Amino acid sequence: MATIGFIGLGIMGSPMAVNLARAGHTVTGWNRSPERTEALVEAGGRAAGSIAEAVRDADVVITMLPAAPQVEACAYGEDGILAHAKKGALLIDMSSITPQASVGLARNAAERGIRVLDAPVSGGEAGAVEAVLSIMVGGEAADFEAARPVFEALGKTFVLCGPHGAGQTVKAANQLIVAVNLQACAEAIAFLEKAGIDLDAALEVLNGGLAGSTVLTRKQQNFLHRDYRPGFKLALHHKDMAVVTDTARDLGVVLPAGSLAAQLIASAVARGEGELDHSALLRGVELLSGTAE
Amino acid sequence: MATIGFIGLGIMGSPMAVNLARAGHTVTGWNRSPERTEALVEAGGRAAGSIAEAVRDADVVITMLPAAPQVEACAYGEDGILAHAKKGALLIDMSSITPQASVGLARNAAERGIRVLDAPVSGGEAGAVEAVLSIMVGGEAADFEAARPVFEALGKTFVLCGPHGAGQTVKAANQLIVAVNLQACAEAIAFLEKAGIDLDAALEVLNGGLAGSTVLTRKQQNFLHRDYRPGFKLALHHKDMAVVTDTARDLGVVLPAGSLAAQLIASAVARGEGELDHSALLRGVELLSGTAE
Amino acid sequence: MATIGFIGLGIMGSPMAVNLARAGHTVTGWNRSPERTEALVEAGGRAAGSIAEAVRDADVVITMLPAAPQVEACAYGEDGILAHAKKGALLIDMSSITPQASVGLARNAAERGIRVLDAPVSGGEAGAVEAVLSIMVGGEAADFEAARPVFEALGKTFVLCGPHGAGQTVKAANQLIVAVNLQACAEAIAFLEKAGIDLDAALEVLNGGLAGSTVLTRKQQNFLHRDYRPGFKLALHHKDMAVVTDTARDLGVVLPAGSLAAQLIASAVARGEGELDHSALLRGVELLSGTAE
Amino acid sequence: MATIGFIGLGIMGSPMAVNLARAGHTVTGWNRSPERTEALVEAGGRAAGSIAEAVRDADVVITMLPAAPQVEACAYGEDGILAHAKKGALLIDMSSITPQASVGLARNAAERGIRVLDAPVSGGEAGAVEAVLSIMVGGEAADFEAARPVFEALGKTFVLCGPHGAGQTVKAANQLIVAVNLQACAEAIAFLEKAGIDLDAALEVLNGGLAGSTVLTRKQQNFLHRDYRPGFKLALHHKDMAVVTDTARDLGVVLPAGSLAAQLIASAVARGEGELDHSALLRGVELLSGTAE
């Protein structure tokens, strides 16, 4: 069992830290708003008053933060991880940031003798609570092996995809597919509704054939009832699509459908729908088709 | 057990007729090229020398043909189904044609006392052979109930979606989602490859998260090995996308991603790739990204 | 000077017939709503009570009608042009219809000894009134020469582009460019406005550089004042984009920007804006960007 | 007449400096490769051995450089403009960089008592040689008035569009329209060619109607003869489209056609065509349509 410092106890981080504590790890958590540590403490973990306190004795430090600026602030600050973690500690950054930021973090940490994995996740709040996340990992094979007990407490699928940054690149590919397939399903639903088809019947049979997908299954109720409580917010998907399109530009890969989906997500955010679940892409199709309420 | 006349013993129709014969139905098959009847005869069915002969004694007539012109030729010809089927027979057209053509067929058949269901399928050759097709049905509820034993021998999921033409409309929605999601997966794979990611690892973890889909599972080997033997030909998907975009235009539904995918499929066909499996959309992404061989 | 039967005295046809009469031609006009003949009569022309009466003595018959069904009704009906025009007459169809419909009209007319040119126009109501239309002509060179005095009374630029249907094909290309460039200008204006730029200044300098175009000049006031009185209606441009995309599909030409513009025009029509000028594509950009009123 | 230091004597900068010298201004030019100063010297200007020497006595300093890094190196370096120009000098940056970089330059220069205008241009090499550039200016009105004699020697149209950065924003809008309209024209030409239309005739009549534009006029020969010698390179347009799409993302403006054009330009660059004129977007349409050689 590992001694773990857990930085970032938000919607995702809190249940993840809880699952680690329940699995028997010694978990000390820190969050900017200290009231978010309660669930962890109830599950047997400890609350730290500072990042330094959370990471000082840890073999493994986990960060689960909204974006690169927060990761970099927590890593590089005076009270930060690199200044206070033990030499030889393993820093697992499970936030979704750019591949370049992950590569930079690994290089900077190496200078302090700290090893790094990038390990962003897919699965949302439900996946975090139920410990069935998909975890996409970049870094050294030995570090991946060392992290295995941690990943086992958090997810169902976890795979080493390549060197530092590779986890973030795969996460970007994940968000690309999810965005485009959400749009596909939204267009199909608007099409079926305007044709007067029984949607419950149609979705059942669509899911049984080549059109079936996790998006269509997990978001079916959102689509059918126009229930756009998140889930995963369009504003976050918008941020992720910037990673996708900027990385693709750097790589010289052309993404006709991906860049269209990025525009349609940007449109939803510009229209003030950033706090809705990303299944609300259906609203955009309805707006374009003149059937939005 | 029903007496069935089966018209059209192609890649899909032949294994479907075989499965019906094996399930105990009395099946008489007809095909324009008569040598295609062999498999059915081996499975215990009979070969007919004409459509008239195939349908004369049938309670159920099934058509499984490439497109509307063939369906209409077989239905309306002098030697055709409407001229020779029994009054009260049930005609199940499992071809993929336009909703309008299905509505027209039902109306014309009704004048001869023949009932019609439109019942296009999803699942490809493998789904036909393994009898796990998804079947999307339009027509009367009583006729759907009457067809149940037939559908049970052919597929895993079969659902009545609405009145005449509704099966075709749902099939169009199916082809829309499949086209866009194939394009999404193709873009993600080109993105991952150019980033130097281990594709086997990446696809495993992608399939485990929200990006997972039947397309990603069933077409994984096609994508990984650039093995574009059909499966389902781009030329047929091109024909289906014309149904999708024309129907959407009539309905007044806007399909930004669907019409983009239709253009990219049209491009593959224009470049001479119509006979490849539709997973060959990956070639288009590679072409645009300068990495095609 | 020619004896001309003019069929269709709408927004475009009426000023065209007037210009022909003023140029000294003998013009007999017919319109489904007979009150539309007044302007022509004032200009020295005559009103006919039937198509037969309008075309019986004409050397040249001109049709200027909304779409193919109206052209075909006027041409092929019992009281129609082919039944009543003189052998050797020249039928100039200036309506915008599909290239295929034009080819069919030419073939059918030839069987009655009547020659045909397809000669659709660009320039809108203002171009018709001021006799500065661009005229895109398909047909035989000798017939084009014979029609020269007619074209000189109607337009500024008129060019023989190829055989029967070629005029319609060039008109389709015209509508393709106009649609996409309108969308480009609309996006640029939304971009400049949200950036707080002085639009009058910006449009002046844009028009002076490589971004300059007839669309930007002629539609500048529409864009600046959100004055969407037609001009040219989105509903008609929608019909024309169907000709563009269907012809492109038949030809095997891929139009990524053209098909996107077609979707955005379809969206405007679906949202109930079909009666607005096509510069109202700006409303769609504002809707997507959350700045529509 | 002004004393001018001119930094950057490339394809655009060299003829611009020559035009200023010919108009009677005292011009001292500097270029990283010193052999590029010859044309200026022949026109009566002087060559400087360093930036410091070029700007020391200047009332006006002009920069005409490829991108923001070069502008910032020349402005902020130890031997740079801000370190050596006179207090009260006017720095006119005619390079195309991001609006943000222009705002930053103005702020940093102000601390040294140096005034700044951003003044990017449209018109290409021909426009620079013939002194008919369009100049889009951002900054203070008084500085714009002071720069008027300079602009008169360089261009035909020059307009103050707003505060610092506004010139760059309008330039971005210019590049957006040009990219999309080039794509529109390319699609129309591919469409006409595949339909067998006489292109010379078609382009004449298209240019006479609402489809007419500066792009269609100036690039006509490039399109007709597949002559893709630049002109304006796709690689530079690619860089500019990154400014367009990034700025639009910051502004919250959705650019469906603009982002599609950005992808198609990125595709051309990825395929190794970055050194061709941007009219080579036609090659992309031909590639997608299977008609590329």
UniProtKB/TrEMBL annotation, chains A, B, C, D:
Report whether Glycoprotein shows up as a keyword of the record: no
For this protein, the record's InterPro entries field holds:
3-OH-isobutyrate_DH-rel_CS, 6-PGluconate_DH-like_C_sf, 6PGD_dom2, 6PGDH_NADP-bd, HIBADH-like_NADP-bd, HIBADH-related, NAD(P)-bd_dom_sf, Tartro_sem_red
Enzyme Commission number(s): 1.1.1.60
- Record-annotated active site: 171
What keywords sit in the KW lines?
A: NAD, Oxidoreductase
Presence of the UniProt keyword Oxidoreductase in the record: yes
Please give one Gene Ontology molecular function term for this protein: NAD binding
Q: What class of enzyme is it?
A: oxidoreductase
Report any one BP term from Gene Ontology: glyoxylate metabolic process
- SUPFAM superfamilies, A to Z: 6-phosphogluconate dehydrogenase C-terminal domain-like (SSF48179), NAD(P)-binding Rossmann-fold domains (SSF51735)
The 3-hydroxyisobutyrate dehydrogenase-like NAD-binding domain is annotated at: 165-283
Per UniProt, residues of the 6-phosphogluconate dehydrogenase NADP-binding domain are 3-160
**Family recorded in the similarity comment:** Belongs to the HIBADH-related family.
PANTHER family recorded for this chain?
A: 3-HYDROXYISOBUTYRATE DEHYDROGENASE-LIKE 1, MITOCHONDRIAL-RELATED (PTHR43060:SF15)
Record-linked NCBIfam families: tartro_sem_red
Name of the molecule in the record: 2-hydroxy-3-oxopropionate reductase
Which organism is this protein's natural source?
Streptomyces coryli
